[in-house]
Design a protein that fits this description.
The complex is a heterodimer of chains A (1115) and B (345). With 1115 residues, chain A is an alpha+beta fold. Chain A is built from 37 helices and 34 strands. By secondary structure, chain B is of the alpha+beta class. In chain B, a hairpin with a 6-residue loop joins strand 4 and strand 5. Classes of the chains: A alpha+beta (1115), B alpha+beta (345).
């Protein structure tokens, strides 16, 4: 199977990658356009490459039946039932093979149909992807082919807005400079446009004919999953000249999944295809996820299997002890034949053992699996139907891709969320600016007025004077000029941000979305940046006049300085330097301006979660400018340490600034994101943010969504810090800080009043993480991880920034495998989140605007982050309650069912005499007691959903698999055994001692069994009725209906001589039984006795140790 | 913004909004609180106690005499242990005394009892092991007179068994109908000779056979043997006095260490003499009351603390309320912003 091979291949790759082994193990050689290199060049061994097909499906049409059957019988329960069925076929058993064969067949068929359907959907999705058309060059002509037919070496043309069909080496673009803009939003979540560079030697090949004449080979490493690493070289052969060799880096590699922006078209050559693309390598194999409930179920199953085997063993041994007396072995009325006497003792004993196994096999309920499957499948519809999780804006509702995990939603302890597009809308919004202490909110300006925010702090004068007015306009101009935004003309309409003002529809593009937001914001304040033309920046001022500024210098942004500047010459000849940057890097350089007021505003905004930038300027005289030019020039031409010298030059230039004001930009949080996070934290869930974004941005978002609060002490574990100190020191220092408080933390963490005390937030970046994850040479590899986990455990919130997709998965895995084995949930919207979605116990995809990769690979998909709240707190809670009751109840009712059968063997000489009639044996689990529990497990609401939403702390009541702990399981089992004892000995005492009819007639063994069975059916059904807290008409219908059905069935079954039966042992048994007064009395008595202990236990527990849920039930 | 989108008539995938799909069906939510359950407990307890006493009284009125004759007829028992003596006749007589009159003669019936019978699935074994002792009950009004108590074998089986389930093969003559069949191995006579005087009681329709074929559930069991015919001396039941059983001892039990005996018993509406039901009812009733009382006690004791807690809770709630108001105030700022933003669209 190709899928499995690929999976193992990926795994080895991942292993290699994780182990830190990054050396070039092997290489591949690609002939561009399949042209053989000229003779004389190095000879390469041709390799086989996969085609460009993406395979996510599990089965093919041919292997479906064998493979699916194999998979299904790998499940311990199914295999067990198969064995039982075969035993029943082979040996002479007390019950018919139909009793276990029919349900088994049903289970297998239902599951196979379900899985087949799901796989068919995957096939369809794969096909849609593999068949989408791709343009590529064949003999100088443009040909359209299906994506799956793409081969390594093909030259592909990609148009604007299209996604790359495979990993390409960028050969040439329609732009003159051989660049193109790409958004990798669906790969790593960064929505900004990145610039990629065509290979220098090939960028001139701009038409189909040209590109076809290209003669080159590419040598590169074998595929590896790191998105940001690529090593290769290209040989371009030119006639009669030596081939030119040029090295290739990741800036030349266009990745599958990314899409082309703002570039008409590009040509590239395919180097990695299909499952070998970096995107595919970042997917992890879709392993089947099992919920905790299923694991508990399997554990219980093994316990019951042990009980079953010991029961059968005990009975077999006792049988032979009993038969050791010859008069019992061969009573005078039942002597054995000669052949029977000759049979091997061990063979006989083994057959007896098997027969007992068959007799008691119902203790492991085959129908439980059907019911669980049905419950999960049908139950998931309630999630898709939920109108609260329906998003009207996008017209999307929740999707359920795997119904196996419904209950796992109620068990989540850690949430790993992506930031961009998940927490935020990935939509920067200019919120306000503060000029000299006056706050301007641009949105109000649409009425044509500027309204200073009256609610602002430390407002001095709300009516700016003349100089104020001047400053204000200068500030706006500064914002208009100090950026690297490009303007896209009309006509190129694609997914880029449109300016909200459609009349002037110009589209701004920048590598930083903040800049776009600022320029757009200023546009609303009256200043519109028009374009950069011939080194002149044009802007439209408030009076609709065009102002032109000559762009002299750009002092580009870098993350160390955290600011940028431009130097422009105005029309009047004045030279200005405008500088904008983070507050920390601007304030020290400011000599003039209302620093204190602006600083307080900036701090206020930062706490609100806004991204703030300060703007300053200075006027340069011509001499000063010349000096600056000189400075920059020397730095730029330096051969050594150019970067450093440039930085120094910038530092020197950006001094003595005059502070103008500050801006606040919001990466708008998704609706109710903060509210949701708060609720989830109250529910005892730890929320981690994993993002590929940079630290400052991510931290601001964390503040905005209340993940970090005002009083959160933020700990940093970043590359910057590690460069200063060693990793070891940083880690120990952090853990010391954290542990000092941890004593008080753990004590108070349950009170929920964490607001008053110190809590910690941790920020870690990808590089630091990989250092921690890297095994140390000394061998004590787990050491750092343990310390890191310890720190994390004591932090209320963790932010991981600069994460590669696989690192996200690594983090999830790290937590998942830590010693508490917490249940993890990952939520994200982009392809970069897929690996963590697959890794976590529950993966949730946000149905994003860009691509549905996350949604497709997730277990559940929701339209908005806020829906997570209802998903977990309401649906998860309900499904956990429902399925845990389902599981426990199923075991309970089968203990009640089979234990009397076991006891009866002691009274029938271990002769394997069944206590119940075959019809009762077969139908007990299928029809008499199946529907009520199924309906319960679909409908039950122990508290209302509103209550669950209002009080998230109720979620803690079911944390850590609370309802399926061993204690609870043992309680249920003992309850079952107790009830079984009551049924059996109640009936025994009634029938042993007296004639129970008014005319002295007697009852036989079938009446005895029927009496036990009747009490059994009523008791287990009423037990469920007692546990039901949500009685809709459906519950009434199924509960009372099943009881009535049982009675009607028994009347019919015993009321007629059924011609197709070889025996008529049940004839009139039920009716005769009911004609006896004492039997009625006995039935009532036994039901009440069986139910009483449970009722009393429930009431006492509720009175003495009520859970939070029970407290809310009372009100 | 939302409003706008809607008015644009976006094709909505909005699911049907039925109460069922939204899990909002009207429902009754009962909770097992002490307060709700206590009345039920008291009523159940009262019902059970009274039922128990009634059942005990009724069981007490049943008269029962039990005679195990395995040991009394030890000679016969020994004889039967050896299979070669199977066809030898053996009878024994068991005298006994009924101290007071047994009323309800109509239903008075002796029971047959045997021990350690193993039912084995193929019904051949059951039939094979059919009980074949015959028991005659005699009354001695004085030491010389002996009156045979008339015993009826009719109506000792279920009506349906006798009239529907068991049927003789269609034939003029029973013996010819069963021609070509062999009697079960341990039977002394073939099935068509079970009762040659009464054709209604012969063959498969033989009452004793039908009773035997209703296989007992438990190793210790009673089967109905005969009921007393209410005529003559016995019109009002068995008068007090001396009696004896004359038993032709055929059914071997000592081979498997079993015992057999005869029970003379009356029956009432609640069956024979057994205190099980009555006792169980009484005990359960008492337990229920006990539980109810203790729960009431706990409830009253907790009430104090609960009211104290709820006071505290109310305070906390008030605080939360205050905090919320603060939150509302804070969010109202953002709200202004949002609306401001929306108006440009």
């Amino acid at each position: 199977m190709a899928g499995t091979i690929d999976c193992s291949f990926i795994r080895t790759l991942i292993n290699r990658y994780c182990a830190g082994e990054e050396n070039w193990v092997d290489s591949r050689t690609i002939y561009v356009g399949h042209k053989e290199p000229p003779p004389g060049a190095e000879a390469y061994i041709p390799q086989k490459y996969p085609d460009n097909r993406i395979v996510s499906s599990k089965y093919t049409f041919w292997n479906f039946i064998p493979k699916n059957l194999f998979e299904q019988f790998r499940r311990i329960a199914n295999f067990y039932f198969l064995i039982i069925f075969l035993v029943q076929l082979i040996i002479d058993t007390p019950t018919s093979p139909v009793t276990s064969g029919l349900p088994l067949f049903f289970v297998i068929a239902v599951t196979a149909i379900k899985q087949g359907y799901e796989d068919w959907l995957r096939h369809k999705a794969d096909n849609a992807m593999n068949q989408c058309p791709v343009h590529f060059i064949q003999h100088g002509k443009l040909v359209r082919k299906q994506s799956r037919n793409l081969r390594v070496g093909d030259i592909v043309m990609v148009n604007d807005g299209e996604t790359f069909p495979c990993d390409l080496i960028f050969l040439s673009s329609s732009r003159e400079d051989g660049t193109c803009y790409v958004t990798t939003a669906s790969l790593d979540g960064e929505s900004s446009h990145k610039t990629y560079y065509a290979v220098q030697e090939t960028k001139g090949f701009q038409t189909e004919e040209d590109i076809d004449s290209l003669h080159a080979t590419i040598e590169c490493e074998q595929p590896q999953p790191d998105l940001y690493k690529f090593v290769g070289r290209v040989h371009v052969y030119q006639e009669r000249n030596d081939p030119i060799v040029r090295s290739l880096g990741s800036e030349n590699l266009l990745l599958r999944g990314a899409s082309l922006k703002n570039t008409e078209k590009i040509f590239g050559v395919a180097i990695y295809t299909g499952m070998e693309t970096k995107m595919a390598l970042n997917y992890q194999s879709k392993s089947q996820k099992r919920s905790v409930v299923e694991k508990s179920m399997n554990a219980f199953l093994i316990v019951y299997l042990c009980i079953l085997i010991s029961k059968a063993l005990i009975n077999t041994v006792l049988k032979y002890v009993w038969q050791s007396d010859p008069f019992r072995d061969e009573p005078w009325f039942n002597q054995k034949t000669e052949a029977e006497r000759q049979r091997n003792l061990f063979l006989r004993a083994f057959t007896d053992f098997l027969a007992f196994m068959v007799l008691f096999n119902y203790i492991i309920p085959v129908s439980m699996y059907v019911t669980v499957e049905m419950q999960k499948f049908l139950g998931s519809y309630f999630i898709t139907w939920d109108e609260d999780m329906f998003d009207e804006e996008t017209g999307e509702g929740p999707l359920v891709n795997t119904s196996d995990l419904n209950e796992e939603l109620g068990q989540v302890e850690y949430i790993f969320t992506d930031k961009t597009g998940t927490l935020t809308e990935n939509n920067m919004e200019f919120i306000e600016c503060c000029i000299e202490g006056n706050v301007y909110v641009p949105h109000v300006i649409c009425n044509g007025q500027i309204l200073p925010d009256s609610g602002g702090i430390d407002m001095i004068d709300s009516s700016p004077g003349v100089s104020g007015k001047e400053r204000e306009e200068l500030f706006f101009r500064a914002l208009c000029l100090c950026h690297t935004v490009q303007v896209k003309d009309d006509g190129f309409v694609d997914g880029a941000k449109k300016s909200p003002d459609s009349s002037r529809s110009c589209i701004y593009i920048s590598s930083s979305p903040d800049e776009v937001a600022l320029v757009e914001g200023v546009q609303r304040l009256g200043f519109t940046y028009l374009r950069l033309k011939d080194n002149y920046m044009e802007l439209l001022n408030r009076d609709n006049d065009i102002e032109r500024y000559e762009l002299l210098e750009i002092l580009t942004f870098d993350s160390v300085r955290r600011r940028m500047s431009v130097i422009v010459r105005s029309a009047t000849g004045d030279i200005y330097l405008f500088c904008k940057g983070a507050d920390s890097s601007i304030f020290p350089r400011v000599t003039e301006g209302k620093v204190d007021q602006i600083r307080s505003r900036v701090e206020h905004n930062a706490v609100e979660g806004l991204r703030t930038l300060c703007v300053a300027y200075k006027k340069l005289s011509q001499e000063e400018y010349d000096e600056v030019c000189e400075l920059l020039h020397t730095a730029r031409v330096a051969l050594q340490e150019r970067e450093k010298k440039l930085g120094e030059a910038y530092d020197h230039i950006e001094t003595n600034l005059i502070l103008l004001g500050a801006t606040a930009v919001e990466d708008r949080l998704q609706e109710k994101a903060a509210d949701t996070i708060e609720a989830l934290q109250k529910a005892g869930i730890k929320v981690w943010v994993l993002t590929g974004d940079k630290m400052e941005t991510a931290a601001a978002t964390c503040y905005a969504c209340k993940l970090f609060r005002r009083n959160t002490q933020v700990l940093e574990l970043t590359t910057k810090k590690i460069e200063e100190q060693s990793l070891h020191d940083v880690l120990f220092e952090l853990s010391k800080t954290v542990l000092r408080h941890s004593g008080s933390m753990t004590r108070d963490s349950f009170s929920g009043l964490s607001a008053d005390m110190q809590d910690f937030g941790l920020i870690i970046d990808g590089a630091a993480l990989s250092l921690i994850m890297k095994p140390r040479q000394t061998g004590s590899s787990g050491n750092y991880r343990e310390i890191f986990l310890e720190i994390c455990r004591n932090c209320s919130a963790v932010l991981c920034c600069r994460m590669a997709p696989l690192q996200k998965a690594q983090i999830v895995k790290l937590i998942k495998l830590s010693k508490e084995h917490p249940i993890t949930l990952a939520i994200g919207d982009g392809a970069n989140d897929v690996s963590m979605i697959l890794e976590a116990h529950v993966g949730i995809g946000v149905i994003g605007k860009e691509g549905r990769q996350a949604a497709r690979n997730s277990d559940y998909a929701i339209p908005k982050f806020k829906h997570l709240k209802k998903m977990l707190l309401v649906h998860g809670h309900f499904y956990y309650i429902r399925i845990s009751e389902l599981v426990q109840y199923f075991f309970y009712k089968n203990v009640c069912f089979i234990f009397p059968q076991f006891l009866y063997q002691f009274f029938c000489g271990f002769s394997q005499q069944p206590l119940y009639d075959t019809a009762y044996l077969t139908l007990y689990n299928i029809s008499f007691t199946s529907l009520p529990i199924l309906m319960y497990s679909l409908m039950e609401q122990h508290v209302t959903s509103d209550m669950l939403k209002r009080d998230p702390s109720l979620y803690r009541d079911i944390a850590k698999n609370a309802l399926l702990r061993w204690r609870v399981f043992i309680y249920w089992t003992f309850l079952g055994v107790f009830d079984a004892l009551v049924f059996f000995f109640g009936a025994y005492l009634l029938l042993e001692n007296m004639a129970v009819t008014i005319n002295g007639q007697v009852f036989g063994n079938w009446t005895f069994g029927t009496l036990v069975f009747t009490v059994l059916v009523f008791t287990v059904t009423l037990k469920l009725a007692l546990d039901t807290h949500y009685w809709t008409w459906i519950n009434h219908f199924v509960i009372w209906g099943s009881l009535i059905f049982y009675i009607v069935f028994s009347l019919l079954w015993g009321g007629i001589i059924w011609p197709f039966l070889s025996y008529q042992r049940m004839y009139f048994v039920f009716i005769q039984m009911l004609s006896s007064g004492p039997v009625w009395m006995c039935i009532i008595l036994l039901i009440i006795i069986s139910l009483l202990p449970d009722i009393i236990k429930k009431i006492l527990c509720r009175q003495l140790w009520p859970t939070a849920t029970e407290r809310t039930q009372r009100t | 913004m939302k409003m706008k989108n809607n008015s644009q008539g976006l094709p909505s995938r909005m699911p049907d909004n039925t109460a069922f799909r939204q899990q909002r069906l009207p429902a009754w939510s009962p909770y097992l609180t002490a307060w709700a359950v206590l009345p039920g407990f008291f009523t159940t307890g009262a019902f059970f106690l009274s039922m128990g006493i009634l059942l005990i009284l009724s069981a007490k009125s049943v008269k029962e005499i039990e005679i195990t004759y395995t040991d009394i007829c030890s000679d016969c028992s020994k004889l039967r242990e050896n299979a070669s003596n199977f066809y030898k006749e053996c009878t024994c007589s068991v005298p006994f005394f009924i101290p007071e009159k047994m009323p309800n003669v109509e239903n008075c019936a002796p029971f047959q009892r045997a021990s350690n019978e193993i039912p084995i699935a193929p019904c051949g074994a059951i039939a094979n092991s059919m009980f074949n002792d015959t028991i005659l009950l005699s009354y001695y009004p004085n030491s010389t007179t002996r009156i045979n108590v008339p015993l009826l074998s009719s109506e000792i089986t279920w009506w349906t068994d006798k009239h529907v389930k068991f049927q003789n093969p269609e034939s003029r003559n029973l013996s010819s109908a069963f021609a070509g069949t062999a009697k079960p191995l341990y039977w002394t006579k073939p099935v068509y000779q079970l009762d040659q005087e009464n054709p209604e009681n012969n063959g498969f329709l033989n009452n004793d056979f039908i009773v035997w074929m209703r296989v007992a559930a438990l190793p210790t069991f009673k089967n109905l043997y005969r009921r007393i015919h209410r005529i003559g001396h016995f019109a009002d039941g068995l008068p007090a006095g001396d009696y004896s059983f004359d038993i032709s001892y055929n059914f071997p039990v000592t081979i498997f260490k079993g015992k057999k005996g005869v029970v003379l018993s009356t029956v009432t509406w609640s069956g024979g003499k057994s205190f099980f039901l009555g006792g169980a009812y009484t005990v359960t009733g008492a337990m229920t009351w006990l539980a109810a009382f203790s729960m009431t006690a706990i409830h009253l004791k907790l009430k104090k603390t609960i009211s104290f807690q709820s006071l505290k809770l109310a305070k906390v709630k008030a605080k939360v309320e205050r905090d919320k108001r603060r939150d509302v105030f804070r969010t109202s700022n953002t709200w202004v912003r949002t609306t401001g933003r929306d108006c440009r669209d």
